[in-house]
Amino acid sequence: MKPYRTLRQLLVHPKDQRTVEQTGECVYRIPCHNCDCTYIGETGRNYGKRQEEHRKEVESISNRTLTRSDRKSRAAEMNKSVITDHVAKENRVINWSGAKILEREGHRKTRKVKESIWIRKEPSCMNRDGGAYSLPTAYDVFWSRAQHYVTTSLMKLAIGERNVATNLGTVFRLC
Questions:
Q1: Mean per-residue pLDDT over the chain, rounded
Q2: In this structure, are residues 41 and 132 in contact, taking their beta carbons and an 8 Å threshold?
Q3: DSSP assignment, residue 6?
Q4: 51: which residues sit within 8 A by CB, 6+ positions away?
């Protein structure tokens, strides 16, 4: 009989763990602090660098002192990032500490598809478009039904019904 964990597994770690900022090739979410809008993005570079780019652009807009006429003329302009537009036009604050990585994917096309799926699944998304990959509308029905099934299954699981956990795991893998 083999032990569950060996001393080698516990003591030997040849590589250092990456921090969240060092993580690359990922799909991420940045929420708004004032409302329930979120931004979904993807990057093949380090997540920390991409988040810093978003942050610098937002700070360049929010640190300006504008007159009313300047603010009206700026409202018609479109910024490079939709996060900057959200801050400038809606007078909101971004929750940078609430930002998180949703998924990691090394393959670029698959990562873009996953970004499109997350944008479509998010109920209040501030993204300008549906992502780099155009998903058919048939998926909307699937996600709404899957979400309904997950909530009812969680309620049944809380009550104590059996065989719900295995079916719920299948739905989570599909979603």
A1: 78
A2: no
A3: -
A4: 21, 28, 30, 96, 99
Residue that is written with structure tokens 């970004």 in the block: 115
105-149 pLDDT, tens digit each: 888 888 998 898 888 888 888 988 887 777 777 777 776 666 666
Mean pLDDT, rounded, for 48-54: 93
3-state secondary structure 91-142: CCCECHHHCEEEEECCCHHHHHHHHHHHHHHCCCECCCCCCCCCCCCHHHHH
Taking the C-alpha atoms of residue 10 and residue 3, their distance in angstroms, rounded to an integer, is 12
SS3 content of the chain, % helix, strand, coil (to 5): 50, 15, 35
Token pair of 116 as six digits: 């499109």
Q: Class assignment of domain 19-133?
A: alpha beta
Q: Residue 26: is its pLDDT beyond 90? A: yes
Cβ pair 38, 31 in contact under 8 A: yes
Other C-beta atoms within 10 Å of 70: how many? Answer: 11
Residue with tokens 């990456």: 18
- Contact yes or no for 55/96 (Cβ under 8 A): yes
CA of 57: how far to CAs of 19, 32, 66, 88, 108, in Å? 23, 15, 16, 11, 25
pTM value is 0.70
